[in-house]
């Protein structure tokens, strides 16, 4: 695994293909309060590209173009959070999307463990450390432990997607998954408008 780090934006000439794994690191779990610091991307070739965004301007035209490109599928694990952060700080609507957590909930009905670590362990047989999860992502110079951790959050998503796609097909739940992915932008708009804790469909 090679990890490339960029300041501010992706290089203009970088082609990550038609399916890109994305994750974000922030200063906390509240998208309205906790600033976006890092955006990780992978084309699925075992390498990761890390963008340390400018937290004053959030000016990243190449990154925004990729995120909004309708011909590029963006894979996330728990897209709801990353999409809210990307919407709030970069002002972009992410589309189209595949969320490995939603797919997992739709097919792995035999368990309630849908964390990335759980999926990677069960489906790929790899033990993922979550040690750096709550570290200071706002620091100007990230440690090797941080960049390795951040990279590992995106390099397995393509493989997970292909396993989960097989299971969605097997269980006849592809359309349900697609419809959930399409609804994500509305779920995110509700989150950012103050209905984060409310299940809008509940009685
Ligand atoms: Mn992460």
Fold topology:
Layout: E1 3-7, E2 19-26, E3 36-42, E4 48-52, H1 61-68, E5 73-76, H2 79-90, E6 97-99, H3 100-107, H4 116-124, H5 144-155, H6 157-170, H7 174-195
Parallel strand pairs: 1-4, 2-5, 5-6
Antiparallel strand pairs: 2-3, 3-4
Helix pairs in contact: 2-7, 3-6
The protein binds manganese (II) ion (MN).
Can you tell me about this structure?
By secondary structure, the protein is α/β, with parallel strands linked by helices. The chain has one domain (2-195): Nucleotidyltransferase, domain 5, CATH 3.30.420. 42% of the residues lie in helices and 16% in strands. It has helices at 61-68, 79-90, 100-107, 116-124, 144-155, 157-170, 174-195; strands spanning 3-7, 19-26, 36-42, 48-52, 73-76, 97-99. A six-stranded mixed beta sheet has the order 1-4-3-2-5-6. A hairpin with a 5-residue loop joins β3 and β4. It starts with a strand and ends in an 8-residue tail after the last helix. The model has no long low-confidence stretch (mean pLDDT 96). Manganese (II) ion is lined by residues 23, 25, 153.
